[in-house]
Amino acid sequence: MSNGHEPWREHGEIYALGALDGQELKEFEAHLASGCAICEAYVRETRETLAVLHRSLRPEAPPLAIKSRILDQIAPQAIAGPRQEKPSWLNWNWLGLGIGAVATAAVALVLTSNLTRTQSELEKAKAQLAAAQIESAQKDELLQLLSSQDVRLVELKGLEAAPAARARLFWNPGARSGILLINGLSKTPPDKAYELWGIVGTEPFPAGVFRVDDQGQARFRMPVLGEGKNFDKFAVTLEPAAGVEKPSGPMVLLGSL
Amino acid sequence: MSAQSLSEGVYLIQQVANQDREAFGQLYDRFSTLVFTLAMRMLKARSDAEDLLQEVFVQVWRQAQSYSAERGSPEAWIVNIARSRAIDKIRSIRRRERSLVLTDDPSRAESSDNVESSAAESETRLAMNSALANLPEAQRKVLELAYFAGLTQTEIATRLAEPLGTVKTRMRSGIQRLREMLGTQAV
To answer: What is the pTM of this model?
Structure first.
């Protein structure tokens, strides 16, 4: 969001929370009504972030009777009306059929061209929707993992090889998995990969390889690890692209539980 | 929730938009516990929560055509409907209570305090939640008062006897910290 939008951004966060009021609320609603796609997206994204609040509540199932009460209340399915008689002009005679065939061919040609274009647009829209759904599902998965009461937060700090690097690992010991968020690490060289390690005492166990983008960021969803080890530390090293069984490269991040 | 089950949610809403009652039943089965849990937390009274659940799903039935996957997940859409309705109810109750408190009705004045005690109970449970537990207490409190108790920024400032600017800063810092922890990017 650009700097010119900063005041709207402030309002957008509090609006998404439902707490904006008074003149600020009126102004922001008018701004949204003007069709600002940036603010609309920002409010939507903030609401998705705030979902962690209601997901932290202990689930409580509603009484079964409510479902039938609601089904009774909603309108019954529309019943199809009586079948309509064909209009008389559709009862073609042979002459009409001949003219109609020519006209149909011409229309079909135009429609085929339009249909091809429409199908292409439809496919594009479907692909965009699928991508958005996958992204939402990933956020959803992240929220679900973070909502577990077992999750532990591990702060990893950059070592001498990468002093500006910082990372947060959300480690779920019960699920034997977690999510690592990284900032400030160098982009992964082409033939290399960063590798995460769970450490017990001084013994490291591989916990997956990942790459860092041009901005020095990465979000890495750990694979589900085998049973057993209660890690007390986590570290990241730079290794060959396929990963290794024991660390061999420089350690760039380290953090303790 | 997998990508597949998420798209199932989108698909169900699209079917509901076509007045498909069976799809509506499946959508209800999927989201009713979430809505009821939120309603219980916000409204406290079971009968109010049940009414809200009914109102929300009737609105989902009537407005399914207005849903667009590009504007948010099915859960976010349904939760937004539920929160908006719950906040309307809370504010309506609060207006009534305010007028009754002005006439020195002690029972109503007491029920206003219950909002605080329930919030405190919830805070204890929320403190067990990892993402929220990592928020400073002051930030979590303002987010909770807004999200669950339906208080506006001005009302929160009054209740906490803090300057409005402080409340806004705490809200924004809390959201920002959640965003960092969840790895969600601001637009």
So the answer is: 0.55
